[in-house]
Each structure stands twice: as structure tokens, then as C-alpha cells.
Amino acid sequence: MRAYIGRQQAVSVEDFAELALGTPVELWLGVEGETEQERAARLDAARDILADCPDLPDDLVRIAAQVIEDNPDLFDVVPFTRPARRRPARKGVAA
Question: What does residue 35 show for φ and ψ, rounded to 5 degrees?
């Protein structure tokens, strides 16, 4: 089966991430062996993108959280259990 996002075919996990971000993942994570000059240029480009799209980090966190919540079997995630709330004892009534 083929998967398309818009008109782009996504073949790998990296393709899906790049299409979701609208930028190559390497822009945000860097690449092994990059020079200081390459790193500075990459970070400068990332700052420009964030200046144009200030909601991008929040949007990506929401999307990632939703994907994890919808597909816990794809991740090594153990859901937190919420402890039962204890009601405070009323005055004059033994708990």
C-alpha cells in the first residue's frame, strides 16, 4: 500500500516526519559531523522558520501527543494511573 500526504509519497518514517514538519528532520536535530559553520546556518534557518510560525512547537507537541495516545502499541509507553481522590472528612463525621 502507498501512503501520500498531499501529493508527496511517504515511504519511510523519516518521510512522514518531514512531511508533517514541512522541513527536513535534520534541520531540527542536526547531522553527525556537521561543522560549526553548518550548525550555525542550520540554527539560523530554524530560527527564521520559528519566527514565521511561532505556534509550530506547540502544534507539533499536540500532534505527537495525539499520535502516542491513539497508538500506544507503537511506543514503549505506560499510561499513568491517576490515584483516586480522597474526599476530606467533614467536620464532626468520622472517616
Answer: -80, 165
HSE on the CB side for 75, CA within 13 Å?
A: 12
pLDDT digits (tens, 9 = 90+) for 44-83: 999 999 999 899 888 878 877 887 788 777 777 666 777 7
C-alpha grid cell for residue 44? 539560523
Report the phi/psi class of residue 33: left, alpha or beta, with left for phi > 0 and alpha for psi in -120 to 50.
left
CA dihedral sign of residues 51, 59, 17, 2: negative
Tracing cell 528532520 back to the chain, one arrives at: 25
From the number of C-beta atoms within 10 Å of its C-beta (0-12, 13-18, 19+), residue 49 rates as: middle
The whole-angstrom separation of Cα 28 and Cα 17 is 11
What is the distance between the alpha carbons of residues 88 and 95, in angstroms, rounded to a whole number?
A: 9
Q: For residues 56 and 60, what is the distance between their CA atoms, to the nearest angstrom?
A: 6
